[in-house]
């Protein structure tokens, strides 16, 4: 990753904080018991992590992510609209969970990136009010996806986005291929 790329990733992270201020907050306590989970599998079917969802304070959902065996770096992380994970590309999970039909980064499913350390392990924990756990269990369910690239939240000011982000980044945040997928199931 070049110095310029790292700078843009850091700017994207800072911009995310500004964009979703008030809708996400870091959880500093052990949290409530999970009410839904997703076992995350890579394209070969190997388990690479888990995601848990728990009802939290003030109507927020606490999300906890734990992954292992992934490429070090930032990885886009989203809830996708269909609860099906067909390997190897996981396109069966559909697009981002987006019941309000908003542009990126306004999708209900837009969540913070997961940072995977040099040892291949990564963790994230946050609270969101963008969806309730029950919303994840609509007629076709939901899945979580870990992407190959960081999510740019459609706000990195490079030539391609001048004056506005293009359709690809508005739809996906340029998070790239889908590395791993987990169907959200009730506990």
Question: Could you describe the 3D structure shown?
Answer:
With 187 residues, the chain is of the alpha+beta class. The protein has one domain: Sandwich (Immunoglobulin-like), CATH 2.60.40. It has helices spanning 3-19, 167-172, and strands at 24-25, 36-42, 47-55, 61-67, 73-75, 77-80, 114-116, 122-128, 143-147, 178-186. 12% of the residues lie in helices and 30% in strands. A hairpin with a 5-residue loop joins β3 (47-55) and β4.
Enumerate the strands of the largest sheet in spatial order, edge to edge or round the barrel.
Answer: 1-8-4-3-2-10-9-6
Strand content: 25-35%
Low-confidence stretches: 3-29
Alpha-beta content class: alpha+beta
The CATH topology: Immunoglobulin-like
**CATH architecture designation:** Sandwich
Q: Evaluate the radius of gyration.
A: 15 Å
Query: How many extended strands?
Result: 10
Q: How far is the N terminus from the C terminus?
A: 39 Å
**Mean pLDDT over the full residue set:** 81
Q: What percent of residues adopt helix (DSSP H or I)?
A: 10-25%
Task: Please give the count of helices.
Answer: 2
Structural domain count: 1
Could you give the order of the helices and strands? HEEEEEEEEEHE
Biggest sheet overview: 8 strands, antiparallel
Provide the CATH top-level class.
Mainly Beta
Shape: globular
What would CATH call the homologous superfamily? Superoxide dismutase, copper/zinc binding domain
């Amino acid at each position: 990753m070049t110095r310029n790329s790292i700078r843009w990733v850091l700017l994207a992270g800072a911009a995310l904080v500004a964009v979703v201020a008030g809708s996400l907050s870091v959880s500093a306590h052990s949290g409530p018991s999970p009410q839904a989970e997703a076992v995350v599998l890579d394209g070969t079917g190997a388990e690479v992590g888990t995601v848990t969802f728990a009802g939290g304070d003030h109507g927020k959902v606490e999300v906890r992510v734990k992954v292992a065996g992934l490429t070090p770096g930032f990885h886009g992380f989203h809830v996708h609209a269909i609860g099906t994970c067909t390997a190897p590309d996981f396109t069966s999970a559909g697009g981002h969970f987006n019941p309000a039909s908003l542009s990126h980064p306004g999708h209900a499913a837009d969540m913070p990136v997961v940072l995977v350390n040099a040892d291949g392990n990564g963790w994230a924990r946050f609270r969101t009010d963008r969806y309730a756990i029950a919303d994840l269990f609509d007629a076709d369910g939901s899945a979580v996806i870990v992407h190959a690239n960081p999510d740019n939240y459609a706000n990195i000011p490079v030539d391609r986005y001048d004056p506005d982000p293009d359709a690809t980044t508005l739809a996906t945040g340029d998070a790239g291929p889908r590395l791993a997928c987990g169907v959200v199931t009730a506990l």
